[in-house]
Design brief:
Blueprint lengths: L2 H4 L5 E2 L8 E2 L2 E2 H8 L3 E5 H14 L5 E6 L6 H9 L3 E4 L2 H10 L7 E3 L6 H10 L3 E4 L2 H14 L3 E6 L25 H10 L6 E7 L10 H19 L6 E3 L23 H15 L6 E4 L3 H4 L3 E13 L2 E6 L8 H5 L5 E3 L11 E6 L8 E8 L7 E4 L20 E6 L2 E6 L4 H5 L5
Helix pairs in contact: 3-10, 4-5, 5-6, 6-7, 8-9, 9-10
Bound molecules: pyridoxal-5'-phosphate.
Length: 438
């Protein structure tokens, strides 16, 4: 597999107009028969292809790609990425436990972000020997110092600065302005580094930043890293040597790219986007000789995943047609939570049947009006029993799923080359009831 020849491809394709949708060379009809629906299907090849794009783009400087575990924390995906040298960005003790379970050797490549770490989580991470804590407040730095002293383990830390850079994205996933809860101002960070410069148990290792998620343009990343780099230079003048700059994650994908029948015909070019991102970061880092960390989540896994669902019913209410699926907002909450768009395609392309689309709402069975995947969307006519695929669902899909309405969560399948394997079995009602007493 060479990155150059395959990066514009998408993993979900109709190999022929009359064939069902495939993930690589595996038929989604076959997967639905074997594992049932709703079902998350991921392409391992695509995830590795995306990782390789970042690794190639920063090949000229010391760097580490720390996959943001919260985007999709499946053990099999963590293991896959760890085997190719990735590190991890975690935001909880639970995510650290996942990394330790999937790839214990990767503990030294973990950075720990998040605005509210508990003493127990800090202890766990200190004992695991993670690379660095991304500290988000004065209070947290004091807590880290006291836990490190107590355990007699030196803690490497980075302070997450809030660069006050505006990035065009959904307000719920924008994080880099002073009005947001994340990080501290550059002036505060400077004072914090100085205040612990002589600490026996704290080691100033890096400076980190993360300005938000689903950001399309490269410019705000460059601006944020420029401000971080200038802080690093001021720290150097004060005798504080910083070894890593962590540029965070947030590079966005295009959720509106219609599925091409020609796999090379995609309008969205991930290689170009990574190239522009790397160019902006490299310009901002000119003269910095330490290690660059980046924390991509969505960009690595979103387009590698689809949620496969079966049509339960088609009903008309007045002028509206509702396609009711066996997947619901508890399985994929992005449309309800962020008004997010997902391309939805029939697994049978319909090319050999009536091709004229109808305008429909695609909804789940959960008792909430907000339980929809698409509103007023053209869709080729479907019948109960037909399969649909919600594309670009690999990030913040299963990771944000719940048991709302006492619905067991879907199974997950990973496609690697020509083979597919179950990486998480479907939950049972017994799983749901297990922690409870009546
Ligand atoms: C969520 C998050 C990321 C990943 O964001 P993506 O948009 O998925 O790339 C990276 N770093 C931090 C600190 C985060 O909170």
């Amino acid at each position: 597999m060479t990155a150059a020849s395959t990066t514009s491809s998408r993993p979900f394709v109709y190999p022929r107009p009359d064939a069902p949708l495939h993930c690589g060379s595996v038929s989604l009809e076959k997967l639905a028969r074997e594992y049932g629906t709703p079902l998350y299907v991921y392409s391992a090849d695509q995830i590795l292809e995306r990782l390789a794009l970042f690794q190639a783009a920063f090949a000229d400087r010391p760097h580490l790609v720390c996959y943001a575990v919260k985007a999709n924390s499946a053990l099999a995906i963590l293991k896959l990425l760890a085997e190719r040298g990735a590190g991890f960005d975690i935001v909880s003790g639970g995510e650290l436990e996942r990394v330790l379970a999937a790839a214990p050797e990767a503990a030294a490549r973990v950075v720990f972000s998040g605005v509210g770490k508990t003493a127990a989580e800090i202890d766990l991470a200190l004992r695991a020997g993670i690379l660095a804590f991304n500290v988000e407040s004065q209070g947290e730095l004091a807590l880290l110092a006291s836990r490190a002293a107590k355990l007699r383990i030196r803690a490497r830390f980075a302070i997450r600065v809030n660069p006050d850079v505006f990035a065009e994205t959904h307000p719920y996933i924008s994080t880099g302005l002073h009005e947001h809860k994340f990080g501290v101002s550059i002036a505060t960070a400077l004072a914090m580094y100085k205040s612990v410069a002589k600490s026996k148990w704290l080691e100033a290792h890096g400076v980190s930043v993360h300005i938000g998620s689903q950001i399309a343009s490269a410019a705000p990343f460059g601006q944020a890293v420029e401000r971080v780099h200038s802080l690093v230079r001021r720290l150097a003048r004060a005798g504080i040597e910083i070894r890593t700059i962590d540029a965070g994650g947030g590079l966005g994908i295009d959720y509106h790219t219609p599925l091409p029948t020609n796999p090379d015909g995609a309008a969205f070019d991930p290689a170009r986007r990574v190239h522009a991102y790397a160019k902006a970061l490299n310009a901002a880092l000119d003269g910095f000789e330490g290690q660059l960390l980046i924390e991509p989540g969505r960009f690595l896994v979103a387009q590698a995943g689809a949620l496969l669902t079966r049509v339960l019913n088609v009903k008309r209410n007045g002028k509206k047609t509702f396609v009711i699926t066996d997947a619901a907002m508890n399985d994929l909450i992005r449309p309800a939570l962020y008004q997010a768009h997902h391309e939805i395609v029939p697994v049978r392309s319909g090319k050999t049947r009536a091709p004229k689309p109808r305008i429909v709402d695609i909804v789940g069975p959960v008792c909430e009006t907000g339980d929809f995947f698409a509103r007023s969307r053209p869709l080729a006519p479907v019948e109960p029993g037909d399969l649909l695929a919600l594309l670009d669902a690999g990030a913040y899909g299963m990771a944000q799923s719940s048991n709302y309405n006492s619905r067991p969560r879907p199974a997950e399948v990973l496609v690697e080359g020509k083979t597919a394997r179950l990486i998480r079995r479907r939950e049972t009602i017994a799983d749901l009831l297990a922690p409870e007493v009546s």
